C-alpha cells in the first residue's frame, strides 16, 4: 500500500454540498437527511494477499468493501441495497474506487493527519474529513 490508510477513522467534518451530492445520486430526501446527521467511523485494514477491507459504520447501517486494488469487485453503494461492479485503483497517493457504469467515485487520500474522502457524481462532488480515532474516541 502506497499510503498508510490502515486504522480507525472518525468523521470530523463534511462540506455543505454533501446533500447535493446525495441528491444527484438519486437518494431520497429522508435518506439524505439521515445521512447528513450521522458521524460514521471507518476501519481500514489489509489482509494477507493484499486484500483491502474498508468497513464504514453508522447508527443506521454498516458497509464493508473487500477488494484487491486493480481488480473488479461487486459491492453495495451505501444508499442502495443491490450490488454494483466497482474497481479500485491507485492514482499516485489516492485510492480511487469507481462504481462502474454509474459515474460515481470515492477517492480517499491522507492529507496531514486527516483521511479525506472525496465523493463525486458527474460534476457534483463533496469532501468528508476524518481524524484517526484514538482508543478513547472509538
UniProtKB/TrEMBL annotation:
Pfam families: Lipocalin. GO terms for molecular function: lipid binding. Residues 7-119 form the Lipocalin/cytosolic fatty-acid binding domain. InterPro entries: Calycin, ILBP, Lipocln_cytosolic_FA-bd_dom. SUPFAM superfamilies: Lipocalins. Belongs to the calycin superfamily. Fatty-acid binding protein (FABP) family. This is Fatty acid-binding protein, brain-like.
Amino acid at each position: 500500500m502506497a499510503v498508510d490508510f490502515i486504522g480507525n477513522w472518525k468523521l470530523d467534518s463534511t462540506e455543505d454540498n454533501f446533500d447535493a451530492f446525495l441528491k444527484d445520486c438519486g437518494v431520497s430526501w429522508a435518506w439524505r437527511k439521515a445521512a447528513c446527521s450521522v458521524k460514521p467511523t471507518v476501519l481500514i485494514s489489509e489482509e494477507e494477499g493484499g486484500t483491502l477491507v474498508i468497513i464504514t459504520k453508522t447508527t443506521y447501517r454498516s458497509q464493508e468493501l473487500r477488494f484487491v486494488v486493480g481488480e473488479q469487485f461487486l459491492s453495495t453503494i451505501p444508499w442502495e441495497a443491490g450490488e454494483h461492479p466497482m474497481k479500485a485503483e491507485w492514482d499516485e497517493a489516492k485510492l480511487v474506487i469507481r462504481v462502474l457504469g454509474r459515474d460515481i467515485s470515492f477517492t480517499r487520500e491522507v492529507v496531514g493527519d486527516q483521511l479525506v474522502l472525496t465523493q463525486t457524481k458527474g460534476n457534483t462532488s463533496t469532501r468528508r474529513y476524518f481524524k484517526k480515532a484514538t482508543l478513547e474516541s472509538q
